[in-house]
Design brief:
CATH superfamily: Jelly Rolls
Order of helices and strands: EEHEEEEEEEHEE
Largest sheet: 6 strands, antiparallel
CATH architecture: Sandwich
Number of strands: 11
Strand order of the largest sheet: 1-2-7-4-9-3
Number of helices: 2
Shape: globular
Number of domains: 1
Structural class: mainly beta
Length: about 200
């Protein structure tokens, strides 16, 4: 069984982004969980099989290997974990016209936690061959929302989506469990500040 070698916390670069609601796109406003980007969290040569096995150990269900759609969309029923195993890409989060949108370049070895309600799309596949493993919390089904008028009050649905119980990469001590204070108590009793 392939294993995933993670970058130690002391060397991990983590970006978090709170993205305001815009038009009919909830983004992070309803639940206050930021978009997380783990930069170089694992070696770029890591196989998708190793990523999938690791995600399963953290209560996630890998469901696809693909690129990202080039149309802004979001999920109102689940959070999404994306682990890049091939290529580089420029991604957009929050919606094209949102002044609070986030543009990020990601590459093989990066992971992204996209909270429910956060719009996302591919802007550019930089080298060609951009691929990710897409995973969702066990028992969750994903939907496709576009911020269209007929979708109803998706902000209320998004607000009710239960947050992750384990960090997708670091398990019981990972960044998604640190909360708004930006730190978590480690098993040795020390405090880990947001990186």
């Amino acid at each position: 069984m392939p294993s995933l070698t993670l970058t130690p916390f002391s060397a991990l670069r983590l970006s978090t982004h709170y993205i305001p609601s815009y038009s009919r796109i909830p983004n992070t406003t309803p639940h206050s969980h930021p978009l997380y980007i783990y930069h170089s969290a694992f070696p770029p040569s890591t196989s998708p099989q190793a990523i999938e096995t690791h995600l399963r150990s953290n209560k996630l269900s890998p469901q696809w290997r693909y690129t990202m759609y080039s149309t802004s969309h979001f999920h109102s029923t689940t959070h999404e974990v994306l682990c890049v195993f091939s290529g580089r890409a420029k991604l957009l989060f929050g919606g094209e016209k949102n002044p609070g949108r986030v543009e990020a370049q990601v590459k093989a070895g990066d992971a992204i936690v996209v909270p429910a309600g956060v719009a996302h799309r591919l802007l550019e596949d930089v080298d060609g061959g951009f691929q990710m493993v897409g995973a969702y919390p066990e028992g969750c089904s994903w939907d496709m929302c576009y911020g269209s008028e007929g979708e109803g009050d998706v902000a209320e649905k998004v607000k009710g989506v239960q947050w992750l119980t384990k960090d997708p990469l670091y398990g019981a001590e990972g960044p998604v469990l640190w909360g708004k204070e930006g730190s978590a108590t480690m098993t040795d009793g020390s405090r880990k500040e947001e990186l």
